[in-house]
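To: structure desk
From: M.T.
Subject: fold request, one chain
Message: Could you run this one when you get a chance? Sequence is below, nothing fancy, just the single chain.
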Amino acid sequence: MRKSIYGVCMSAFLLLGTLPMKAQFNIGKAAGGTTKVLKAATLTDADMAKYVKEYIAWMDEHNHVCDAKSPYTKRLNRLTQGLTSVEGIPLNFKVYYVTDVNAFACPDGSVRVFSSLMDAMTDEELLGVIGHELGHVAHKDSKKGFRTALLTSALKDGIASTNGAAAALSESQLGSLGESLLNATYSQKQESKADGYGYEFLKKNGKNPWAMALAFERLKKLEEDAGVQKDSKWQRMFSSHPDLDKRIKTMSKRAEKDGFARPENKMPERIVHEEPVTTKQTSNAQSSNKRTVGSRPAAKKNVGKKPVGKRPVGKRPATTRRR
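Reply: Done. C-alpha cells follow.
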C-alpha cells in the first residue's frame, strides 16, 4: 500500500500526503576540502542503514509525534503488543498526529501510523495495514524502494562523502527523498506477496489474520464513500490499491480455511481532540513565508494546537510504497 495506507517508508499506507517541494542536490557537500562525490555503486548496506535512520529521524522531527500519554499511542501499543521484530529486524511504532490518512514502514523496522487513519479504522483493520506493510519490509521491497528513491532524488548527482564516510543529507535532499518515496509504487506481485506475508505474520504472532481482509474491506468502503471527489484525502490512497475485491476474497477464504472466526470488528470509542493541522513541506527559502491553512508562525505557540511540522511522506516508504 504505498501512496495509500500502505506505504513505503514508505509504505508508506502512508502514505498519502503531498510534498510540493522540489529540492536540488546540495553541491556544497560535493565540493572542496576532503569532500568528494562517489558513484552510486558505492552505496553500501551501511550507507543505506545510515540514510534510513537519518530519514526517519527527520520525519519524526518534522511531524507531531504523539507522546506516551496520548490515547493514540496507548491504542497502538496495545494493538502491536507482541510484535517485536520481522525477519530479525526490531520494530518500533509511533503515531503522527496529522490529518493525512496513511501509515508506512521503513527498512529499519520503523512503523509510523497517522492518527487520522486510526480514526477511520478498527483495531483489526489497523493490524491488517500494519501486517501488509511489514510484508514489504520482510521481502526487502522497502529497502529496494528506498535505495531507488535515494539514487533518483537526494543522491541523483552522486553520494557525498567525507573521509570515506557518506555525508549526511541536507534538509532539501531529505525533502526530495520524501517526495520520491511518496511517488514510489510496488508491483502487483509485490503487493500480493506482502498480503500473504502479513497474513502469516499476524497468525504467527497470535493475531486474527482476518485483519487482512477487513483492512481491504475498509479501504474499499472508504474508496466508495470518497466517490469522484478528486481532492478527497482518500483519493490518492485508492489509486494505488488495485483489485481490492480479489484481495478481500483471497484473504477471507484463507482465514475461513484456517478455521479463524470473523471478528466483530467494531469501531473503538472515538478520541475527542482538536482537528490536526495539515502541513506541507516547503523549500528552505519558502518556509519562512509560505504556510498552510491552520498553521501559525513557530514563534506564536497557541495552547491546545499541535506544532506545525512538515507533512509526512504519503508513500510506502521505500520502501514507505501503495498496498
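Reply (cont.): Strands lie at 35-38, 85-86, 89-90, 92-96, 103-105, 110-114, 159-162, 165-166. Let me know if you need anything else for the meeting.
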